[in-house]
# Entry
Amino acid sequence: MLGSLMRFKFARDLYSKRVCKRLTEVYDTGKVREMSLDVETERLVVLSDQHKGARNGADDFWRCEPAYCAALGYYLVAGFKLCILGDAEELWEVETPGPILDHYKEVLALEKEFQDEPGQYVRCWGNHDLHWRDEPSALQQRLPGLELFEGVKLHLEQGGEELGEAFLVHGHQGTIESEQLHKVSKQAVGKIYAPIQRWRKKASTTPARDWRLRDAHSLAMYKWAAGRDRTAPLLLIAGHTHEPIFSAPPSLDQDADQAAVPPAWARAQAEARAAKHPDRSTKTLRYEEMKTACYFNTGCCSYGDGSISGLEICDGKIRLVSWPWPWGKDPPSRVTLDEASLSEVFKALPA
# Structure
């Protein structure tokens, strides 16, 4: 229903205003962690939307556990800070967190190795693990001293000079079904959808079944980042949609005429969904409307093929990366999908 309304400009505009209003509220008055990062000497990886479940048919993470653990091991050895940007645990489909934390205690142990180093680990909540905002004790027993946030203000520096700021947030803010009607949606998913998924034993990594709604939400987040009044350049990094987005200047195999085109991996997803649902899907996300490189999305860590995606900030660059796992044929390995110089990204932003 809501997705169908996104056919109309007035509905998209109203939706965008609500999302932008909530993002502003979180930025101005939310529980936000402030931290600094020298992009030349320090490293950060941002991962989101693991949706760890109870290892049953409704668990979207178990296929991705090998790739996720391989990625965490790589980032730990390489000296990366780790930001988990929400929906780490699937607490809509699983009534209590205990079974999830027990089933994935090895994963939490890996995350704890980041936490053991001061300043190396930060966690935000999303809509599916909003439980941690109000009742974090079970998670804090596994990760002692853990504090959770709704967002992160990341002050980026290079060579002793300030580049600008990145605002990290899960991205569900302002949505009707994920925030305003959170309790209703949680009950519907837990009581109706989760049992069906357990029976079918089929992965479901799409938070929005209607691609129009997903596109409208991505554009709303982009518009907030592109249009926000600010005294310094700002990037928005989010998750939630499970759609990897890299709205940056051309790099790798892209040329100047393809600056707004998504990487091949994301294009393949868009083409596949259009072929499957030509009557109700847009062929691609409206990248032509993203004329400023200010919005980036991690994708997710719960793809049905066992792969994960995320964003890295290091070596003076921002990178969209994937960790594919061809079902045991080879060990999971890191693949760079796209990258851009952060100094060039910030130079291109409006003052």
About this structure: DSSP finds twelve helices and 13 strands in the chain.
